[in-house]
Amino acid sequence: MKKFAVIGATGLVGSAVVKELAQRGHQVTAFARNIDKVQKADNVQAVAIDANAPDFADKLVGFDAVVNAFNAGWENPNLANDLKQGHANILIAVKTAKVPYLLVVGGAGSLNVAPNLQLVDTPDFPADVYPAANAVRELLNELRTRTDVNWAFLSPAAMFAINPVSFERTGKYRIGGDDVLLNVDGTPADISVADLAVAIADDVENKGHLFKRFTVAQK
Fold first, then answer.
1. 3-state DSSP percent of the chain in helix, strand and coil, to 5
2. Could you tell me how many helices (H) and strands (E) the chain has, helices first?
3. What does the longest C-alpha to C-alpha distance in the chain come to?
4. What DSSP element (H or E) covers 21?
5. 3-217 is a CATH 3.40.50.720 domain
6. pTM
7. What is the pLDDT of residues 64-78, one digit of tens each?
8. Domain coordinates of the chain in residue numbers?
9. Contact criterion met (CB below 8 Å) for 189 and 158
């Protein structure tokens, strides 16, 4: 049994990660602004806190790993700026708390679709999503310059949350690096939220991608 923290524990991904880690028997601390939606279990502790709180670093001490599934809310008109501020404050807190492993759940926008072409820069990428996707890409670019924080960065499959979300858990997935993973017919792959949570739990249990970005898709 290990101790894990999940930031953004009531979101689509965060709530699935809390569930998966708890089912594996770990002690899970679920950080959220509103804890009413946090899964109830004996090994899940819900903590109401904002990632921008000045004492957030104190809350992150003592964990084996932290999953950062922070999202400032897709309906938020200041989403891009709030994402930047939230992630910046989380990194400061993680560094101060000397977190041994931070897994940032990012987006697929920074994955390559061709040499020197990332998904976020393709003509069909939604203009309304671009500012937030670009902010997360900038976060990855910053992380790649840093070794003072023990980071890893996960980009879900390109069609995750673009296709209707599946909650089916197969327990299987495949791993890639910086390129969009494809189906056998050449189309971009998807992954269920439950299998994404499986991949996240596997990674933080093993600290599997220190100082690396990786992607996962359905198998």
1. 30, 20, 45
2. 5, 10
3. 49
4. helix 12-23
5. yes
6. 0.95
7. 999 999 987 667 778
8. 3-217
9. yes
